[in-house]
Amino acid sequence: MALGFVRAARPEDAGEIARLQLATWRAAYRRILPRHVLDNLDEAYLARRWSAAVQEPPSGAHRVLVAVEQAEQSYLVGFAASGPADAEALAPGEPADALAEGVAAVTDLLVEPRWGRRGHGSRLLAAMVDHWRSDGFTRAVAWAFDADTATRKFLTSTGWEPDGAGRALDVDDMLVPQVRLHVGVPTEPAAS
């Protein structure tokens, strides 16, 4: 019987987080992002970035969490990162104060496709909500590719809604539309 749980990322997880990110992007975004961009992503560079995010977060409210599937041995199968909303969470032309204090921003929420539909995404999201609540956040936002129906469906199934903001990322001269979703952070944990 396999068990799943979420824990804080450790420095030694950085390489596996980078591998998960690349594997997930290459599988999930192959029809959204240019193939040569996905093929040329540097795993070592991503690992260094994740190492810094884990070891030197900008604040105590910036967190990287990992999902673990444990059977005969443990596997990192997904990860999530969030922190206080900053300029990266804003839509083009939005004033700097559009996302008030108390708003968390999800920068990453990925589960490797081969480990999908086992509750890892839900556990990652629930763990983030617990942290947001303890950090005093009242709302959270996340950007999703407009064509990433899996992520959008997952988030909306848990109460997230589009907030009307959109943007297009310039990925090697290709504009890739995104939509911003938001959700209120409940003040109390959900009843089991």
UniProtKB/TrEMBL annotation:
Listed InterPro entries: Acyl_CoA_acyltransferase, Bact_Acetyltransf, GNAT_dom
Listed GO MF terms: acyltransferase activity, transferring groups other than amino-acyl groups
Database matches in Pfam families: Acetyltransf_1 (PF00583)
SUPFAM superfamilies assigned: Acyl-CoA N-acyltransferases (Nat) (SSF55729)
Name used for this protein in its record: Acetyltransferase (GNAT) domain-containing protein
All copies of domain N-acetyltransferase, residue ranges: 4-182
Domain of life of the organism encoding this protein: Bacteria
Gene3D superfamilies, sorted: 3.40.630.30
Keyword entries, A-Z: Acyltransferase, Transferase
